[in-house]
Amino acid sequence: MLRVLVVSSTVKGSESLSTLIREYEGYVDIATTTFCSEARRMIFDNEFDLVVINAPLSDESGEQLASTITEQTLAGVIMVVRNEYLETTETIMGASGVLVVSKPVIKQLFFQTLGLARSMRRRLTVMQNENDKLQKKIEEIKLIDRAKWTLIQNLGMDEQQAHRYIEKQAMDLRKNRYDVASAILKTYQ
Question: Full-prediction pTM beyond 0.85?
């Protein structure tokens, strides 16, 4: 289920955008707010797939909120701005990955923008997952290298012998190298 936050200074704007989102997406969980401060709190307390900002807002223009969301979450962000501000806002916000749509909202264009935002969210999620896997792999390599260094210092092995020792222990004990390296570090600390 798609989780959406609509930020608009008017109830009418929130209802209008929520109706369009439901028409495009079907069953969605939509939360609404009228203030940037409340939107920030909601964003950090919950995970949203999409945030739609109907600018300007009552407490700020919405550009800073959009930038914060793209920097600190994986949510797709769409800003809805007055037609006269479209080019300026696109220039400013485009580099942040914020999609911009002009008012009055054209249904077909808004639907295309929703599709783009969802695609961006999927790609960012895949990239985040890959990044997490790589970070985990780097941490494993660091731990194994520390275990090798511990064997070199305490048992007088060279690096190749330490490497073979960890590999052999992993095979003999039917454990992965990370667990064997962890045990070595616990033993000699």
Answer: no
